[in-house]
Recover the amino acids of this structure.
């Protein structure tokens, strides 16, 4: 029965994963540069990437919206049998909407709606790890009102309040001694709160520096539904019930530099420190306990991780800008805790994009991001489930920008 409790932990890793399942697609322009945007202004989406830069807009009202189309595959080769298996994930479509308004020369306000988590992972009903996870679906919407103030010509600050509404559903098989198709479904939703803040300083005419901080968010899920589909003889051991758990989303600090090398060429580098070590354990409280279904304390012991990014934008003329970017994202998951619930590998992201002004105030933005997950072989000691994992993700993104 311990396997049931441990597999429920699949909820948190897919909320938390920084390498393969977190959707860092809050701006098409930034995606084309490898998610850069802390050290410079790049449209209304800067309300997310660094709220301090919102006042750098030339226009009074700026609006951006867009969507991405994620195709992700996770491959697994069993250490025991050598059999190769792969996820069959549906297309995921995270979106974003940002709007900023210059109240006066110093004060700006913004409102953002975006989906930093929102994918589905399907391993299948009968794959070799079905007792750990079969599928998981996650939806999350963030709403962020933001203010920015320019203290002087060089220094500006900004901060935003974050409201999060999220829901999750997972399915897995139960290794019970009676019956061949016993399963459990977990479903729940919750609200949470946090903030992000930023500072930007123009060191020289060509060199700018930005620092942002996104707070830790505790996703306190209370009253989630646990539904068992089991052989009638097992119903007393596996009653339908509810569960509660707290899922921590770690804080992230980012430092970025932007250098205007020429009138047309902008170069930027960034580093992010993600405080995954805050995620030490995930504890579950079931409303109705039996000898088979007990409350649990489950160590995760994630490690802090870094993300390194470099990218460039070249403005060919007043209507066209092209972008390139690359980044490296460390996995926070230690070997002893690595499993198909959290197929977190070190990732290399390579991106390209462009913006083209259709008419005076309307611009179309496009980007393409390829994420290569480095092969990782690990043994999940708790369930003696080991093998090699590979992750590949393809993400085209389209957006529109309008200035009033």
């Amino acid at each position: 029965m311990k396997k049931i409790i441990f597999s429920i932990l699949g909820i948190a890793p897919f909320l938390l994963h920084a390498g393969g399942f977190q959707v860092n697609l809050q701006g098409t322009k930034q995606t084309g540069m490898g998610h850069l945007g802390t050290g410079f202004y790049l449209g209304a989406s800067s309300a997310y990437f660094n709220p301090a830069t919102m006042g750098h807009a030339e226009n009074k009202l700026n609006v951006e919206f867009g969507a991405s189309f994620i195709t992700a595959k996770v491959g697994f080769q069993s250490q025991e049998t050598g059999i190769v298996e792969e996820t069959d994930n549906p297309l995921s479509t995270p979106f974003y909407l940002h709007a900023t308004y210059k109240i006066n020369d110093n004060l700006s306000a913004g409102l953002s709606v975006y989906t930093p988590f929102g994918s589905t992972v399907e391993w299948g009903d009968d794959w070799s790890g079905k007792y750990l996870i079969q599928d998981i679906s996650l939806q999350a919407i963030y709403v962020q009102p933001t203010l920015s103030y320019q203290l002087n010509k060089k220094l500006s600050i900004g901060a935003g309040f974050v409201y999060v509404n999220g829901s999750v559903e997972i399915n897995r098989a139960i290794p019970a001694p009676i019956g061949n198709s016993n399963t459990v479904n977990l479903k729940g939703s919750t609200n949470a709160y946090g903030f992000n803040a930023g500072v930007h300083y123009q060191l020289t005419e060509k060199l700018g520096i930005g620092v942002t901080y996104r707070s830790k968010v505790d996703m306190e899920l209370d009253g989630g539904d646990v539904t068992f589909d089991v052989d009638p003889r097992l119903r007393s051991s596996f009653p339908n019930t509810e569960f509660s758990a707290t899922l921590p989303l770690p804080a992230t600090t980012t430092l970025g530099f932007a250098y205007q090398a020429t009138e047309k060429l902008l170069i930027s580098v960034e580093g992010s420190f993600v405080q995954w070590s805050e995620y030490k354990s995930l504890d579950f409280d079931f409303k109705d306990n039996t000898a088979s279904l007990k409350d649990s304390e489950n160590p995760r012991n994630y490690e802090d991780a870094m993300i390194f990014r470099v990218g460039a934008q070249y403005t060919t003329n007043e209507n066209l800008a092209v972008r390139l970017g690359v980044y490296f994202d460390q996995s926070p998951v230690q070997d002893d805790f690595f499993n198909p619930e959290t197929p977190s590998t070190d990732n290399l992201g390579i991106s390209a994009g462009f913006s083209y002004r259709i008419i005076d105030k309307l611009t179309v933005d496009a980007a393409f991001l390829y994420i290569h997950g480095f092969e990782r072989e690990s043994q999940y000691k708790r369930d003696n489930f080991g093998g090699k994992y590979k992750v590949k993700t393809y993400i085209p993104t389209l957006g529109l920008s309008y200035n009033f």
